[in-house]
Design a protein that fits this description.
five-stranded antiparallel beta sheet, 12 strands
Length: 385
């Protein structure tokens, strides 16, 4: 606005100084009459609205905001004009171009010497402040997740890795004694236990390594053609040794050839952990079946066992890293529940979903899906989706 350079009378001087003061305020200011028409606006308000002063004076600006916003604004305006009680509020306003701003408004009533009522409003745009607060909140949430993950990993390293190594040391001592006694049967039993404990511990170490890599963006992902039948068969072959110690039968009836465009190592890790979990909670002499099906867009893999099953409460918490879901297996196997957390992480990064269906004392079905064609590199980093 161009201000008068040489006011000629007292009234002009008052208007000149009033407008000058308002224009030098950092906040937007406007004054409305009792009919909600603009009678005074400062430069900051003109800039915020994207309109020249001439297009606002004498108008309600109703057409410049959405009907919902207009109804909210006018309701507060009329209330302040009616009762004279100051209103301090946060409001959203959509300006020209469709951009939504968050405003902190302070509205008060002024009555002049003629008894006419006016609404005075001071507006501060706090959009950037609100975005900064949201970003801070997100950062705090991520930090809490990182700390929870760190505590979880430290707990696993301190307990779940320490325990099997202690067992291996103890079993090695017992094996040495049985060798000295030339007790072949006892020696074979100890060797089998050492082998089983070692395999379980290596699996846990592998999971921890993959998890840490996924959290720091160091886990390589390859999008390649994967023969699902081949991957499942190879994974089950590696799991047979552990299943044999509990006389558990592993079954996989190959379906028609299924190919996905994904990472075969990550798929193997997911299936291996699900099968290992089922072995842990299936009684000796039980069975585990792996099924694969596909539709037009997704592959679905089911690892089904006739084990001990779970209650709905346990089932709902299985895949949460912040929940300690460590349970003892049917042969007193100890574990951290970490493998299932890793499965969820990997399945979701591949663009799929994972869930469990279970009935206590009747067994469990662990299911996951992944897209048949996944050409987008997953975002394996610390920021959670």
């Amino acid at each position: 606005m161009s201000l008068p350079t040489s006011p000629n009378n007292h009234l002009d001087k008052d208007n000149f100084y009033t407008q000058t003061v308002l224009n030098n305020m950092g906040d937007s200011v406007f004054v409305k009459d009792a009919e909600s028409k603009m009678v005074l606006v400062n430069d900051a308000f003109c800039k915020m609205m994207g309109l020249p002063r001439e297009e606002m004076i004498g108008k309600t600006l109703a057409e410049e905001v959405t009907p919902e916003e207009r109804e909210s604004f006018l309701k507060i305006d009329w209330q302040v004009l009616a009762d004279g009680i100051e209103n301090i509020n946060e409001e959203e306003m959509t300006v020209r171009g469709g951009e939504t701003h968050i405003l902190s408004t302070r509205k008060s009533r002024f009555i002049d010497e003629n008894g006419d009522k006016f609404l005075i409003c001071v507006v501060r745009d706090i959009t950037d402040q609100k975005k900064a607060e949201e970003n801070l909140h997100e950062s705090e949430t991520q930090l809490k997740e990182v700390l929870a993950t760190k505590d979880r990993l430290l707990s696993i390293i301190a307990h779940d890795l320490r325990s099997p190594f202690n067992n291996i040391t103890l079993l090695s001592d017992l094996l040495g004694d049985s060798v000295k006694r030339n007790d072949v049967g006892q020696s074979e039993e100890y060797l089998e236990l050492i082998n089983k404990t070692t395999q379980n511990t290596l699996t846990l170490l592998d999971n921890l390594l993959n998890w840490s890599k996924s959290q720091t963006g160091q886990l390589d992902f390859k999008s390649e053609k994967v023969d699902v039948n081949k991957v499942v068969s190879q994974t089950l072959e590696l799991s047979k040794a552990i299943a044999r110690t509990k006389n558990i039968e592993l079954n996989y009836v190959e379906s028609d050839t299924i190919q996905v465009c994904s990472d075969h190592k990550i798929i193997k890790t997911i299936i291996r952990n699900l099968v290992s979990n089922s072995i842990k909670f299936t009684k000796p002499g039980g069975s585990i079946n792996v099924l694969t099906t596909q539709n037009e867009t997704h592959l679905e893999v089911t690892v089904s066992d006739n084990g001990v099953g779970m209650s709905p409460d346990i089932c709902d918490k299985l895949f949460c890293v912040n929940t300690n879901m460590a349970r003892v297996g049917t042969a007193s196997e100890k574990g951290s529940g970490f493998g299932l957390v890793l499965c969820k992480e990997f399945v979701e990064k591949l663009g799929g979903e994972i869930w469990a269906e279970s009935t206590l004392d009747k067994g469990s079905d662990f299911k996951f899906t992944i897209p048949l064609n996944n050409n987008t590199k997953p975002n394996f980093n610390l920021a959670r989706n």
